[in-house]
């Protein structure tokens, strides 16, 4: 048996895990690994421009493919620069393995050059982490890291590799590598409890006003077919969280779009008035629930989740089912009987008609229009990534996706700058797909250096900057809740994004008129070798509606002021419908709270 | 979802976690408690009959939901093998205390008598102090400490509670 270095063993383990790409940045503590990479052809290394970008690329790759994303950085600043990216993955349960170099084991704790406690720093933001102490532990630890990252509720795992561990040479037989090792203290539950599933089926049968509330867990477990079948068979309408987008085709008549702070009014009305809330792989985030004691206050709750700790964490649950969403839904479908559409469905459809997502087509180039056009021109087939802010919410509202893993966004952590590096990971995984990063002028500038990475690897990403020359979401809050005291949200001073694109060797375009949106997008889509940055210059003082202010309930929901007017212009029957009238109708439904 | 919050009544629970005896596992558990805002009253850690497994006994306060979360979040840690929440009376709880108390000649026999009643042992006699070793439930140690207070406790160290189920049941 030939002797292999720790670095060679590491790469061989990665190959056996099916790793296609390593997103990384070299440095002193990972020199042996980079040396081994030099003549290793089975894995492609993507050289980033900042380690944060590496983490987001691995994350974007993982979100789009469902496979584990891998990033590799050096010790000290390399590791600390990963922190935001790892935390982003942790909050959205994304499987990545982050490999960090470390100083020699003999130097650990001595404040050596570029030493930092990567384990301590990453402990609260990883599913698990490892400090490798011996070369011979590499195969076991790498196998465990990948297995932990992708199984159960997925999440990031960090492996800290001291220099002497990757330098060390031992005899090792690559065929002895064992994927998916058994870890006695870690055995996720996939199969739901049958009694609980039967109870859930019974509750669905008895419910008068049920709603499906579907989150990222359904996307992760690949349960679109099951969610759709459950919805179709029972005529229960589906609202998804930001992370759950695509768990049902959003063009499906049973889809209510997103719920929560910037969710559709009809999804929020449906959840507010339902008597049975079927939570599927969702975790009752505060951006979804708003004021907790008002959220779905008449409803009995079924909660399906692979993570037992999510059950009862935020809200009371009547029928908990711990298990993998897809597996549980398949079982549930054995017991669920067909239900006809009821008056409740009609009511929700009525809300849908009365409170549409709508924006003025008045010759101005509104952000919503740009996103609507991106959706139309890409025929709803693009894989979309976003930054964080107003553009993200508009994208979530207006880019109706057909399938899971098509909308890639930082939900839990809300990481500005996520979009472009994530898009790089996505485009590498799917070279023939149209990948659009819908970004903000603020978000874009947080990780703009990765544009170089996209150019070097000839990735035809389209970056649609929704440029309102402002930190729009903060500006919106300051307008609505802070007496229009616009404190430090002005981004008038930004680079010329067209020239910036050109400086990087990308293509830059600027669009200021609505009629130019489509031609620009078509031109961008015809490019298959270079990233295209389109600077869409949109108005500054526009807000995302609907909006339920933080910590409040649907009663405080703000709709756009011109909603009635806009709706009247598209609604042929011209029927007017005030909030008071709507409350009257609600009362008929909410005869009796289900539970005290 | 009316009634989503319970009445919020706080209880004290003794929780035992069997964990893999790895470096850093204590940091994970302590970090979890700090991060999630759980209150720890005491924490005792030691190796078990199996050298690869450590036993952590945690006394924590909180309402039912908090205590349920503590158990579930502990279980999520990869290195945690098992978590047992000892509900009242099903387990024996003990801790050990070392108490250094002022012992002037005139008080010595009185202190010795009290220690006797509590089955404490004097393990060091100084010119002006006794060092008393005492085991028992936390209440017993509290009571003894109260009785010693008038003489003047110079120093006290407590191990924190360890617990074990009665009968054949094991964690």
Describe the structure.
- The complex is a heterodimer of chains A (596) and B (171).
- Chain A has 25 helices and 20 strands.
- Chain A is of the alpha/beta class and 596 residues long.
- Chain A folds into three domains: 3-176, Rossmann fold (3-Layer(aba) Sandwich), CATH 3.40.50; 194-354, Rossmann fold; 367-537, Thiamin diphosphate (ThDP)-binding fold, Pyr/PP domains (Rossmann fold, 3-Layer(aba) Sandwich).
- A six-stranded parallel β-sheet of chain A has the order 3-2-4-5-7-6, sandwiched between helices. A six-stranded parallel β-sheet of chain A has the order 11-10-9-12-13-14, with helices on both faces. A six-stranded parallel β-sheet of chain A has the order 16-15-17-18-20-19, sandwiched between helices.
- In chain A, helix 23 (517-526) links the parallel strand 19 (507-511) and strand 20.
- The longest helix of chain A is centred in the first third of the chain and has 15 residues, at 51-65.
- The model of chain A is unreliable at 572-579 and 590-596 (pLDDT under 50).
- Chain B is an alpha+beta fold.
- Chain B has two domains: 11-86, Alpha-Beta Plaits (2-Layer Sandwich), CATH 3.30.70.260; 92-165, ACT-like. Chain A, domain 2 (Alpha-Beta Plaits, 2-Layer Sandwich).
- Chain B has helices spanning 25-36, 64-76, 108-117, 138-148, and strands at 11-20, 39-47, 53-62, 80-86, 91-102, 121-125, 129-136, 153-158, 162-165.
- In chain B, strands 5, 6, 7, 8 and 9 form a five-stranded antiparallel β-sheet that branches. A four-stranded antiparallel β-sheet of chain B has the order 2-3-1-4, covered by helices on one side.
- Chain B is elongated.
- The chains are: A alpha/beta (596), B alpha+beta (171).
């Amino acid at each position: 048996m030939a002797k292999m270095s720790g670095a060679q063993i590491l790469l061989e383990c990665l190959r056996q895990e099916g790793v296609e790409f390593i997103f990384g940045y070299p440095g002193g503590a990972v020199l042996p690994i980079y040396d081994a990479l030099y003549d290793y052809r089975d894995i492609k290394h993507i050289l980033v421009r900042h380690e944060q970008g590496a983490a987001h690329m691995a994350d974007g790759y993982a979100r789009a493919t469902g496979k584990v994303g891998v990033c590799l950085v050096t010790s000290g600043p390399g590791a600390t620069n990963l922190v935001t990216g790892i935390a982003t993955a942790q909050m959205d349960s994304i499987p990545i393995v982050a490999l960090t170099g470390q100083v020699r084991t003999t130097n650990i704790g001595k404040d050596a050059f570029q030493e930092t406690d990567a384990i301590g720093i990453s402990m609260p933001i990883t599913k698990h982490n490892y400090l490798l102490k011996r070369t011979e532990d590499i195969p076991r630890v790498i196998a465990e890291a990948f297995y932990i990252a992708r199984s159960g509720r997925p999440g990031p795992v960090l492996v800290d590799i001291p220099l002497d561990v990757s330098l060390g040479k031992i005899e090792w037989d690559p065929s002895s590598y064992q994927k998916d090792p058994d870890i006695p203290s870690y055995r996720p539950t996939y199969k739901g409890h049958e009694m609980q599933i039967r109870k859930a089926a019974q509750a669905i049968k008895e419910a008068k006003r049920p709603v499906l509330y579907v989150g990222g867990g359904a996307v992760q477990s690949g349960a679109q077919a099951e969610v759709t079948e459950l919805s179709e068979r029972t005529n229960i309408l589906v609202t998804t969280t930001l992370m759950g987008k695509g768990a049902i085709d959003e063009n499906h008549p049973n889809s209510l779009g997103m719920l929560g702070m910037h969710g559709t009014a009809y999804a929020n009305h449906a959840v507010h008035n339902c008597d049975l809330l079927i939570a599927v792989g969702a975790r009752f985030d505060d951006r979804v629930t708003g004021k907790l004691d008002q959220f779905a206050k008449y409803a009995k709750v079924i909660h399906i989740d692979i993570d037992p700790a999510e059950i009862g964490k935020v809200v009371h649950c009547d029928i908990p089912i711990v298990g993998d969403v897809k597996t549980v839904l398949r079982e549930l479908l054995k017991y669920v009987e067909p239900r006809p559409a009821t008056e409740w469905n009609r009511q929700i459809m009525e809300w849908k008609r009365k409170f549409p997502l709508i924006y003025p087509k008045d010759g101005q180039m509104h952000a919503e229009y740009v996103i609507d056009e991106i959706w139309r021109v890409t025929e709803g087939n693009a894989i979309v990534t976003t930054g964080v802010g107003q553009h993200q919410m508009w994208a979530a509202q207006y880019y109706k996706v057909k399938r899971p893993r098509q909308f890639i966004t930082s939900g839990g952590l809300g990481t500005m700058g996520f979009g472009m590096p994530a898009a790089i990971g996505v485009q590498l995984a799917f070279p023939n797909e149209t990948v659009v990063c819908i970004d903000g002028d603020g978000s874009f500038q947080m990780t703009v250096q990765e544009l170089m990475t996209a150019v070097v690897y000839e990735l035809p990403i389209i970056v649609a900057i929704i440029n309102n020359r402002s930190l729009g979401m903060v500006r919106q809050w300051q307008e609505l809740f802070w007496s229009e005291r616009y404190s430090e949200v002005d981004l008038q001073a930004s680079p010329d994004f067209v020239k910036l694109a050109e400086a990087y060797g990308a293509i830059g375009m600027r669009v200021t008129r609505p009629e130019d949106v489509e031609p620009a997008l078509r031109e961008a889509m015809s490019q298959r070798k270079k990233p295209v940055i389109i600077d869409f210059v949109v108005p500054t003082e526009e807000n995302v509606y609907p909006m339920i202010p933080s910590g409040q309930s649907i009663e405080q929901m703000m709709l756009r002021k011109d909603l009635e007017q806009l709706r009247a212009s598209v609604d042929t029957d011209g029927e007017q419908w005030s909030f008071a009238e709507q409350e009257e109708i609600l009362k008929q439904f909410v005869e009796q709270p289900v539970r005290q | 979802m009316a009634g989503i919050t319970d009445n919020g009544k706080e209880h004290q629970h003794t929780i035992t976690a069997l964990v893999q005896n790895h470096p850093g596992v204590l940091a994970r558990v302590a970090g979890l408690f700090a991060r999630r805002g759980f209150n720890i009253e005491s924490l005792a850690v030691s190796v078990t009959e199996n050298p690869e497994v450590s036993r952590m006994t945690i006394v924590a306060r909180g309402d039912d939901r908090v205590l349920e979360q503590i158990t579930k979040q502990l279980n999520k840690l990869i290195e945690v093998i098992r978590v047992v929440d000892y509900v009242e009376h099903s387990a024996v709880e003990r801790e050990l205390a070392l108490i250094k108390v002022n012992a002037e000649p005139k008080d010595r026999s009185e202190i010795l008598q009290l220690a006797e009643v509590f089955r404490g042992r004097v393990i060091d006699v100084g010119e002006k102090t006794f060092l008393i070793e005492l085991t028992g439930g936390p209440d017993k140690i509290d009571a003894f400490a109260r009785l010693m207070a008038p003489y003047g406790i110079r120093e006290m160290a407590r191990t924190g509670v360890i617990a074990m189920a009665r009968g054949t049941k094991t964690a």
